[in-house]
Design a protein that fits this description.
Layout lengths: L8 E3 L4 H9 L4 E3 L11 H10 L8 E10 L2 E3 L5 H11 L3 E11 L4 E12 L4 H10 L19 E5 L2 H5 L3 H11 L8
Helix pairs in contact: 3-4
Length: about 190
């Protein structure tokens, strides 16, 4: 007797990192760009706004938002190379938080959660900063870096879910799928 395929999760995001993580975890998904205007704020509320902007009556919808926080201040996506360098200088030799909000919903229920990972940068020299900023990898990245690329060279230690820093709190998502859909996606 064959098992019916799991319904795809509707990913309310255009992030290539989030798509790659779902592929890595072998979770079927379809991308639907959210119809939601981000204006900063709490990552859980932003994740919920993204997920709620996408309607689907048959498949679960996933919204995620991630931010980098240092000294209680959220670092957004740098507007230019100078702002990227300033952000990286601020993170140099210090520990910061990567906080993701996650919303998983169906027409019957909604789960809202956050996940925090602590990332410590090594002390960066002017040469380190110039090399990284010159790579352009900082563009469109919260906090001005991408840990899954050249940005790994900036990092000394990660405490928590590494994939959360990449862009999707995978441990949290797997726990929710195992709880809400035991066995459907291969978890639980």
């Amino acid at each position: 007797m064959s098992v019916p395929p799991a319904p795809p999760i509707i990913l309310a995001s255009v992030s290539p990192q989030r798509r790659a993580i779902l592929e890595q975890l072998d979770i079927p998904f379809a991308v639907v760009p959210p119809r939601f205007e981000e204006r900063g704020g709490d990552p859980v509320e932003l994740a919920a706004g993204k997920a709620r902007s996408v309607q689907d009556d048959e498949c679960p919808v996933l919204g995620v938002d991630t931010e980098v926080i240092v000294d209680g201040h959220a670092l957004g996506k740098p507007a230019d190379a100078a702002e990227a360098e300033a952000m990286l200088e601020r993170l140099s030799g210090r520990t910061h938080e990567v906080v993701s909000g996650l919303c998983l919903r169906t027409p019957a229920w909604e789960e809202l959660h956050s996940e925090t990972t602590w990332v410590t940068f090594r002390a960066l020299t002017a040469r380190d900063l110039a090399h990284y900023v010159g790579s352009g990898e900082w563009e469109g990245r919260a906090g001005g870096y991408a840990i899954q690329g050249l940005g790994a060279s900036l990092v000394e230690r990660v405490e928590g879910d590494y994939l959360n820093v990449v862009g999707l709190p995978a441990t949290l998502l797997i726990r929710l799928l195992a709880s809400r859909f035991p066995g459907t996606y291969g978890f639980g």
